[in-house]
Write a structure and sequence with these properties.
Length: about 260
């Protein structure tokens, strides 16, 4: 049996924390990305997930690479970073182009990232079975529900070693269903346990008490997207100022 938890704990050693601190300050990160650190709390989040620099870590759908540029360099010397990403064989040209862009970035910066394994996000296993210490997902679980959620959870379960950990952060919903970018935490727990994981706990470290979760455009009305879809002018002003300054996310993880 494998387990999953959701409690942001600060368990890392001083050495690993300092290493993450150095990476967060790195010149390879844009000022725009660094500006999100105060809201996303990457060091605390990764420490909670129990990351160590000698682990094999799979990141699901790294997208623009916000966490990739932190985790990849952290694992470069002693660990292994696996990107479960766009499918290079997709019929969608945009998807293939995004894969190529990520591949070219990683290949051109091997001194920063090392040798990264890229696998399609829709694969049945991310690398070899029972090989990963940690699988992480940042703000994309809500895209799985109703589509390929169980397929992904099974692939993650196959990929993790016994005792491995699944860490998930996403926008927590007040509802009993996933909607407009918000994820139903009890639903995730039930679905993960149905696959074989065991729930351990959750945390509010990234929680935003100002998030009313009732925006017509969902989480995309919040920073950093700040979509104006469905918002009145007064709401737009609030979201751009103090009302929606923080991102509402949850942290879930799994281990066995």
């Amino acid at each position: 049996m494998k387990f999953f938890i959701s409690v942001f704990l600060m368990l890392s050693s001083i050495a690993s924390s300092q290493s993450i601190d150095d990476i967060l300050k790195g010149k390879h990160r844009s000022e725009k990305n660094k500006a999100r650190d105060i809201y996303r709390n990457p060091k605390e989040t990764l420490n909670f997930f129990g990351i160590k620099n000698d682990m094999t870590v799979v990141e699901l759908s790294p997208g623009g690479g916000w966490y990739q540029e932190i985790i990849g360099p952290y694992l470069r010397k002693n660990g292994k970073y696996i990107s479960a990403t766009y499918d290079p064989e997709s019929k969608n040209e945009r998807t293939r182009d995004r894969y190529s862009k990520e591949r070219d970035k990683l290949n051109s910066q091997k001194k920063l990232y090392g040798d990264v394994l890229m696998v399609p996000i829709n694969a049945a296993v991310y690398g070899e079975e029972n090989s990963a210490d940690l699988v992480v997902s940042f703000r994309n679980y809500h895209n799985w529900s109703g589509n390929s959620e169980f397929e992904k959870l099974r692939a993650i379960y196959k990929t993790l070693k016994p005792g491995g950990v699944l860490g998930i952060t996403d926008h927590r919903s007040n509802s009993t269903k996933d909607e407009k970018g918000y994820a139903c935490e009890p639903c995730l727990i039930d679905d993960a346990e149905a696959v074989g994981f065991k729930y351990i706990g959750s945390s509010q470290i990234n929680a935003n008490p100002m998030d009313t979760k009732d925006y017509p455009g969902g989480v995309w009305n919040l920073p950093p997207t700040l979509s104006e879809n469905g918002l009145k002018k007064t709401q737009i002003k609030k979201c751009k100022k103090s009302f929606c300054l923080l991102e509402k996310v949850i942290g879930l993880l799994s281990s066995s």
